[in-house]
Design brief:
By secondary structure, the chain is of the alpha+beta class. 22% of the residues lie in helices and 25% in strands. It has nine helices and 15 strands. The protein has helices at 6-10, 18-32, 41-57, 60-67, 99-107, 143-148, 289-294, 353-365, 376-381, and strands at residues 135-141, 150-161, 177-178, 187-192, 195-200, 209-210, 223-234, 243-246, 262-268, 274-277, 280-288, 296-302, 305-311, 320-323, 339-346. Helix 2 runs antiparallel to helix 3 (41-57). It is elongated and about 105 Å long. It starts with 5 loop residues before the first helix and ends with a helix.
């Protein structure tokens, strides 16, 4: 994929903050996502461009390198460069694998954690296997799907092993060779008095091997950009922001390393009736003034049907009743939450003449001052 200005692709200024860049990326990713445009190949291509742009400026180190007019301004930061020698397909000093990544791996003991992988070694004989990057994707489910669980389709932009070269990065019929300058160590040492400073090999970029004849399909990276489709099982009881891990579904590793994982962030649509409160849900149940005064048996919704609740006479506004074990499932098979019914007194804004007479009659027989307790301290003080 030819590299365009990633800022223009995302529609943001070069001085945009990381949050602004992430927000712009998510908006465009949703707009051009293949699942939303199944019959539009141009949308999928645009989706790949947006992902590619975010791969550059969404990473602080790669963004700095790009802003300095460095390696990413000329070629694919994920191993695209043209012919000549290079660690993962680019010439010395090219964008092969990302120079910032090489420095990080050599002097920072390799990447680890989400988005990272095992480090590259400096031992003679080549490069250690590197774990593929973890990926993150987002899906939206309805409230009902979150409660009951569901299986959803998901399209994820990622890399796959190049079919032409089998992932070696070399033209079919050829193979990578040990770098003649560093003898496969990936580093060069320069003496500075009593000290010796090591830096990435200027010939192979720190890879330990060179590719004299890059693969024409992947231009030496050993990987090609693609969009993979998955069917993801969303467990019953997921909450907003829950993360579902798909082991081994991240980016493929390099040099025979294991693939990363795919983390699916679940967004749950709001329900017009139920509000999630931790492991429980809450329902607001309106009561008429008469029902609150006299008590009543009212019908209320549950997650799977209806039930009747007994409202005691004299129920106050905001009173809560709990229905145990009728809430959503708890993750990990730890039972189910509860449903909390919060009663609210429904007072009409306007009264008919008949209602007005009834209220007036009621006010004459209702004794006592409901606000008397507010001033009880004044009597004690006097």
């Amino acid at each position: 994929m030819a590299t365009q200005d990633p800022y223009k692709t995302l529609g943001v200024d070069k001085k945009a903050s990381a949050d602004e860049i992430k927000k712009a990326y998510r908006k465009l990713a949703r707009q051009y996502h293949p699942d939303r445009n199944p019959d539009d190949p141009k949308a999928e291509e645009k989706f790949k461009e947006v992902q590619h742009a975010y791969d550059i400026v969404g990473d602080p180190d790669k963004r700095k390198e790009y802003d300095r007019g460095g390696l990413f301004g000329a070629s694919n930061p994920f191993g695209g460069g043209g012919g000549g020698g290079g660690g993962f397909g680019g010439a010395a000093g090219g964008a092969a694998g990302g120079f910032a990544d090489i420095l990080s791996d050599l002097f920072g003991a390799g990447r680890s954690g989400p988005g990272g992988g095992g480090g590259r070694g400096g031992a003679a004989g080549g490069v250690r296997a590197e774990r593929g990057r973890d990926l993150e994707a987002e899906v939206s489910v309805t409230f009902e799907q979150a409660v009951d669980g569901a299986q959803v389709q998901l399209s994820v932009p990622t890399y796959s092993r190049c079919n032409t070269c089998g992932g070696t990065g070399a033209k079919p019929g050829t193979s990578p060779k040990v770098c003649p300058k560093c003898q496969g160590r990936g580093v060069e040492s320069q003496g500075q008095g009593l000290f010796s400073i090591s830096q990435p090999c200027s010939r192979c970029g720190g890879a330990g091997t060179v590719i004299e004849q890059p693969c024409p399909t992947c231009t030496g990276s050993g990987r090609t950009r693609t969009v993979k489709k998955y069917r993801v099982n969303i467990p019953a009881g997921v909450k907003e922001g829950s993360r579902v891990r798909l082991a081994g579904k991240g980016e493929p590793g390099r040099q025979g390393g294991p693939p990363g994982d795919l983390y699916v962030v679940v967004h749950v649509d709001d329900s017009p009736v139920f509000a999630r409160k931790g492991d429980n849900v809450e329902v607001e149940v309106p009561l008429s003034v008469v029902e609150a005064l006299n008590g009543a048996e009212v019908e209320v919704p549950t997650l799977h049907g209806r039930k009747k609740l007994r409202v005691p006479a004299g129920t106050k506004h905001g009173t809560v009743q709990r229905l145990r074990g009728e809430g959503p499932p708890k993750l990990g098979g730890k039972g189910q939450g509860d449903i909390h019914y919060r009663f609210v007194i429904d007072v009409p804004k306007e009264l008919t003449k008949e209602q007005r007479k009834a209220v007036d009659a009621l006010s004459k027989v209702m004794n006592g001052d409901p606000r008397a307790s507010l001033f009880a301290h004044e009597k004690k003080a006097s």
